[in-house]
Amino acid sequence: MKALARPLIIVVLLWFQVVAMPAISEDERRGPELGDVNVDPEIDKGQYQRWIEYYRQEAASYRFHFSSDHTKELELRESPVLLYTNPVGSRGLTHGAVFVWTYQGRSEVVGAIWSHANTPGPNQRTVSHEFHSLSAEPVVAERSGEVVWSTTQPSVQWITPDEVPRPAPSTFGRLTQMRNLAKELNVARVDPKDESKEQLRLLPQPLYRYERGSSAASDGAVFAYCVVWDPDLFLVIESRETDGGPTWKYAPVRFTHLTLTVHHRQKEVWRDARDSKLHRDPAMGYKLFYGVSVQSEVIESE
Question: Alpha carbon of 45 to those of 39, 162, 220, 235, 299: distances in Å?
């Protein structure tokens, strides 16, 4: 029996990694439920659910495709990957939903439809749409049959981390490595008034995990760093095949007009300086459509 112990253990471990640990769990496949987000207790839950459905409809009104080939359309993951509220700030209570558009399983665009209560009229909310391209090639966004945004250059800066293990052979092992790398990064935003830094909070679960067999990378995931639950920076981590074997790459993705910094093991590896006009340049990967509409705070049920 002792002679069989080691082979039996190996077989069990292989079964556990291949069968018991799928590349995408059911929790990762489903969209977040109302209870998944830190909802302000004063929010009417029925109204909030109607707002989420409204955000879904707004996200679905966009059509994304690659500039090089209009037939290569990006697929909207219908369920939001994150629901959030943010009571902090001068805009009053903000809430929104984050969505991902993919091509062949890889995330190519991340976007948020959100609203805030601080408007000139009472009982109203100002709605905004915010996007960032994650693609290595230019993308085009259309709405109501018109081009509303296009990029002309790669939109993210890929970084190779120093002294990290090569990607693990199992999907579960790679997910653990991606989480560990995300935890090692210190992400902060800089207050323009006094240059003080506020550390952003990493959400422990990835918002999106690449599907099995995605085109551009062996594996990957999108993480979020937040103020309260409101994302100010997304982090894309990918396992890439190179001549020297598989390796990790990561790309910070801004989702605010404030200056952001990323440190890895106390060394600054990325900085994106504050530029309030950044979202007005259609060639850039970050686009904010602020104040798209003003809606009644109360959405009537159908």
Answer: 9, 45, 34, 30, 12
Cα 125 to Cα 103: distance, rounded to the nearest angstrom: 33
The HSE-up count of residue 141 (CA atoms within 13 Å, CB side) is 29
141, β-bridge pairs: 64, 149
Q: What is the mean pLDDT of each run of 10 residues along the chain (302 residues)?
A: 46 37 41 48 80 97 95 95 83 89 94 88 90 94 95 88 92 94 96 88 95 66 94 95 90 92 95 70 84 90 72
Length of the chain counted residue by residue: 302
CA angle 170, 244, 24 (to 5 degrees): 25
Q: What DSSP line would sit under 142-182, residue for residue?
A: EETTEEEEE--S-----B--SS-PPPPSSHHHHHHHHHHHH
Distance CA 298, CA 12 (A): 55
| Joined tokens for residue 168 | 């693990």
pTM for this entry: 0.83
Distance CA 289, CA 285 (A): 13
| Tokens at 177, concatenated | 């490595």
Answer positive or negative: Cα dihedral of 77, 79, 80, 81. Answer: negative
Other Cβ atoms closer than 10 A to 291: 12
Say which DSSP state 20 is in.
I
Phi, psi (5° rounding) for residue 72? -90, 80
How many helices (H) and strands (E) would you count in the chain? 4, 19
Q: Tokens standing for 264?
A: 């890895």
158: left (phi over 0), alpha (psi -120 to 50) or beta: beta
Cα separation, 302 vs 300, whole angstroms: 6
